[in-house]
Amino acid sequence: MTASIAGTREYSRKHMDAWVLWLIAAVVLGAAEVANTSFYLFPFSVGAAGAALVALLGLGTPIAIVVFAVLTALSFAVVRPIARRHLAAPPQLRTGTAALVGQRAIVVERIANDEGVGCVRLHGEVWTARSYDEDAVFEPGTRVHVMEIRGATALVAEE
Fold first, then answer.
1. 30 phi and psi, to 5 degrees?
2. Among candidate residues 87, 106, 141, the one where a domain is terminated
3. Domain check: are 14 and 47 in the same one?
4. Cα(121)–Cα(103) distance, rounded to whole angstroms?
5. Distance (Å, rounded) from C-alpha 26 to C-alpha 46?
6. Averaged pLDDT of the chain
7. CATH number at residue 139
């Protein structure tokens, strides 16, 4: 009877070790997914979690490997199309001053940072403007590109 109990403990220890290893793999893959947000490691994490459950039930390593492969494939089939759809979604509409960044403007008053002067016409409004490059000077009539908005001042660069 003692040999039987020792054999059971050894059998139990083997399977416990397997499910712990699968669980560690699932957690590491899940943490790596959170770190890189590519939706590539998540399916492997799901497969490893399923394999950990199978190993915990004591169904054996070959079945755990099959469950890992099947769940990983199913997760890829479900998650990747959703992830691709979200990654391909158009950017959100920019509003306010953020919508002005990247727009064209026309210099209406000489822009010289050293002198503290300069204005541009941007979407029909006159904005105080400064050169994005400290040394650049723009004369009236020059087309410029809005690089940034700081408060009520447009920072511009030549197109």
1. -65, -40
2. 87
3. yes
4. 11
5. 7
6. 86
7. 2.40.50.140
Asked if residues 135 and 125 have their Cβ atoms less than 8 Å apart, the reply is no
Better-scored residue on pLDDT, 100 or 37? 100
Determine the structural domain holding residue 102 and report its residue range. Answer: 96-158
Same domain, 131 and 66: no
Q: What is the mean pLDDT of residues 29-49?
A: 89
Residue 10 neighbours by CB under 8 Å, 6+ apart: none
Q: What is the predicted pLDDT for the residue at 79? A: 80
What does the pLDDT look like over 59-93, one tens digit per residue? 988 999 999 999 999 999 998 788 777 767 676 67
Burial 25-58 (b: 16+ CB within 10 A, else e): bbeebbeebeeeeebebbbbbbbbbbbbbbbbee
Residue pair 109/119 in contact (Cβ under 8 Å)? The answer is: yes
